[in-house]
Design goal:
alpha/beta
Amino acid sequence: MLKVMTSRQPFLCRLLVVLLCSGVTGMIIDLSHPLSHNTIYWPGQPKFNRTVVVMGSNKDKVWIEVGAFSSGEHGGTHIDAPRHFSPHSYDLKDLPLEHTIAEGVMIDARAEAALNNDYQLTVEKLKAWETDHGRIPDKAAVLVNFGWTSRWSNPREFFGTNDVTNHTTFHFPVVSAEAARWLLDHRHLKILAVDVPAPDGPTDTTFPVHRLLLSQNIVIIENVMVPDSLPARGFRLHAAPIRVEGGTGVQTRVYAMLYDDVTSRSPLVQHLSILLCLLVGTLACWLAQV
């Protein structure tokens, strides 16, 4: 006896299979500091300001609120568009959305940075991370956790100085040019994210990491908030900015979407597991029609 399925049922069955095999748990971790009057900016950047345009009830007793805000491009948790240091590269308006989403890894450099405010992430540190956690995926978002999130509420601690208006006095950990080059050449880096004001040293006016990555249309995310719940791998990082014409940077809602244990395994095992799940699910959908 044949079972009759509606035309919609096979579609729903296949959709369910895709969702079950995707490996997404639905858990999202916010990686963004709030934008407010307390937001930290690089010296010289206009700070956040918000004014109320409308607040109150109209003649029909309907409550309405409307405001306007302004902000410098490079303050708070924000993205650096390639145009920031590469005049012929993408601005925010033209930056492809796929440049802002990638499989993520978190490099924990808190111990090193705690001993030295001027610590520079090295190639050796990256290779040691791979020994412990597996190969950094190609075209990944590499988030470097220096432990600076805990300093966000204190600008002097965050910049490592008593004079927060003079960048030549700043002291915070960064990414070495060699490490950035290694990630680009050997892991085809897609996104670099840091929990400090910049990946380059505050007194290095050659900006080697900015120039290297942005000239290749690789975006940089600065002042990321890194909670203890973020794992070393097994997540997808999202950092899509608004499309500002001519924009070189903007505050961005950065977040990590976690996966289940399948995606924390090697890429080969990960792909085989998903393929097997899809095959079994498709077979089940087909049998349901017989």
